[in-house]
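thread from #wetlab-drylab

HS: before we spend reagent money on co-crystallization trials with pyridoxal-5'-phosphate, can we at least see a predicted complex? here's what I'd submit
DV: go for it
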Amino acid sequence: MTPKSSRSTLQRAADRGPERAPGRDRAVSTDLNDMTGTEIVDLRSDTVTRPSPGMRQAIAEAEVGDDVLGDDPTVKVLQARLAELLGMEASLFFPSGTQANQAGILLSTQRGTEAICEGNAHVYHYEFAGAAAWSGVQLRAVPTEDGVLTAELARPHIRPESPHLMRTSAICAENTHNMAGGKVMPLEVLRGLRGLADEHGMSLHLDGARLWNAAAATGTSAAEFAALADTVMVCFSKGLGAPIGSALAGTAEAIGRAHEWRKRLGGGMRQVGILAAAGLYALEHNLPRIGEDHDRAKRLAEFVDGLDGFHMIAPDTNIVMIDIERDDLTPADAVSFLEERGVWLLAPGPRRLRAVTHLDVDDAGIERASAAFEELAKR
Ligand SMILES: Cc1ncc(COP(=O)(O)O)c(C=O)c1O
């Protein structure tokens, strides 16, 4: 057995198991105390949130039925509510954003064609070549400086009509862009992609895992973004704090076909109203406060940027990318230094750290993270 002293804070917290302190309104970082009682500020991702007592109650009280048989009333309410929110004809609940994205690509493309996405898109790097595996589609990843795929940048990558070249069947946009630091794709940029897609008879799929953040940051509604896409994927399990769940929205016809694909991909779920209830709770209670995460991300970013040896990319939303500019500090060393002080984040690049704010990080958490960075800068 590994002696306790050599176990990392992360391992020790994992050993402690799930939330132990019911009765709090928010599952704040205090439920992730390590063995020494240090409060953990978990900035690894906005997916680490734990359902709050209110959400757990909604889950416990959910009316359910067999959704594969079309019986689950709570799923139906969520799907209708989401379609309304996005201004789309219909939506379908999925277990994950990845599966919903893949269903979107399946609907938007034809086998043996190409789809354009941004060079660091989630569909390109993090979905296990799903577009190739399920849709038989080659993704053409377009490099951009800031993660924003404009029509101007995409246009040269559309294949001309030729007996020697495959057809370009779709564009996959991502808003906000995860690996570009939660970068917003402004409405006019998405409108440009829509125009390009129309010009070339292509479909437009929107990976809106964090579309809520884009809406909060710009004042453009999620429906205004969604109106420009053929299919839109959104997640309940990121900034909205639900334990699981995503959805795909589109025309009633497209969502009918998505239903078939979800079943084929093994995504048919039974009494899944317990999860849909979390999604409904998230839309009602957690969507309106999502801008708070942006304010906290900005505060952390500005503080760290002011320290010697660090440079941040100014965050549009809730994801802070911090580049280490010192040769004597690797991201791995920085992560373990911060971890020892109860601040958890990830190192997604050779010089880069990523900190993500969310529902379970409060002002005190940002202060603790800032203090830990200050200590690191003096190391
Ligand atoms: C932009 C983006 N799209 C899709 C996904 C996939 O979502 P899931 O983890 O629910 O499969 C993620 C997950 O982080 C994401 O950041």
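DV: The chain has 15 helices and 13 strands.
HS: ok that's useful, forwarding to the group
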